[in-house]
Amino acid sequence: MCGTWQKAGAAAIGITLMLGSRATFAQSTASGSPGVVQAAASSGDVTPAQRQELLKAGNFGAPARNEQRAFGSVPIPIPGDVFSRGASEQAAPEKQKGLFPNSWHDFVNQDGFFGDPWGARSWLADHGVTVGGRYFQDTAGNPFGGKSRAARYADEEALSLDFDLKKLTGVAFNAGVLHFLTLARQGAGLGNTLPVIDSPMEIYGAGETMRLGRLSWEMHWNNYVQTEVGEINTENDFEQSSTYWGANLYCQFQNNGICGMPQSIAMNSGYGFYPTAHPGAWIKLYPAGNDHYLVQFGAYSVDPTISGVRNGWKMNLHGATGTFLPFQLGWHQGGNDDYSGPMQTNVKIGGYWDTSEVKNVYGQMGTYNIPASAAQDAPVSKVRGRFGGWFQFDRMLQRDGADPHRGTAFFASFTWGDPRTAIAPYFVTAGITRKGTFASRPDDTISLGMKALWANPKVTHWIEHLQHTGRGAGLYAPHSEEAIELNYGYRPTRWLLLRPGLQYLWSPGAVKRYKDAMLIDLESSISF
């Protein structure tokens, strides 16, 4: 396996070095004001006039971030993102003079709870260090349906640091960005008590512990080539959500089948999902020199042990079973941001090959809560290599003429997995989010979404066979599991999110054993 991994990594780096140059990658989807903002972002010197332009761009006076809304990676790819400021929106607060905000108005309108004490955060950003952080929690309970009544709470605290190597080192050329993300998770999930195949609480899982979420070097070589290598996860860059209004569109929902990616790809393969980090690399090629077209390849270590409590800071290939090799083609159109110009549309088509050796689906029937005894006579075998693919579509449906900060976006996806090994070979998600539910609440959202998975028919037919032969007493044949979610995202300040919601789950566990379940849930987030 190591030989395969090394060859894949060497190929990615080789292509990068052949095509790369020292020019800065400047996508046409960059947010913020053009001209002076971009000049300040690419220079180590910031004049007072430039600072005012940067302040208007938000992010505590840091250079405006390139919003690669269709194809870009996200530092913290889960709910709680602060919506980006539109071109016509009120400027970010002036430089903070002390430990506390200059006024209550500034406290409400700053991007993070701690603001910019003594201007230190702005100073760090000007010198190449961007700091981000968040507290986030999920709470959910089922008043009826499922195996039993229960309520659960889980939370996560995250800290991200991005280092602009050009500014830090003072070199005259673009040197890329070094990403660091660490996080800690606590609490319990509701999925096992229902039980369901896709957790209704996206923040729970991957080991309730402190762990490394990202440690990588990302480089925009020129208008045509972008790369990243290090400890990363596939969820950031393959079958990932597009970004609308500066936030993750899929993660306007709590159900883990929707956020942060169509969940079946992680169930069916070695796809590396947030918050785990795997040795990996990817290359993105933009044939037209802009973000309209994308050709993308990657290579990631497959490690079934990485989500263990003791493996939060594991950064090696011990325990790896193979290499996850995805590719993706993308098409994007849209304006400079989601507040002006053409409305955003994205199409992504991708697939993967996983070199790992795994049991076929008969050896994984425990996922459906089927006892091991049911597999005694089943044709269990091992399979070398898994494959699958996906199709994604999203579009901004409308933007209010009277207030461009209010609009509506839609998404849909279809994911397919290897029928020999896939737990859910067919998986569908769809959703719609309305930003700006009322004229006085331009950043509040109302979202309606759904997910549906279909169990592998091989397992269904096997259990039905046992039932017909009198050996299936107490067994339930899996068919499908569906869920729908409706929520309201209330943002009393830019840094605080409160999102109550309802979920309805049909056939928990993909079987007709328990009654359909209704969940009442609440997500909340504080951005630091």
Automatic annotation (TrEMBL):
Residues annotated as signal peptide: 1-26
Assigned keywords, A-Z: Signal
InterPro entries: Carb-sel_porin_OprB, OprB_Porin, OprB_sf
Pfam families membership: OprB (PF04966)
Superkingdom as given in the UniProt entry: Bacteria
Family: Belongs to the OprB family.
Protein known as: Carbohydrate porin
Record organism: Bombella dulcis
Lineage: Bacteria, Pseudomonadati, Pseudomonadota, Alphaproteobacteria, Acetobacterales
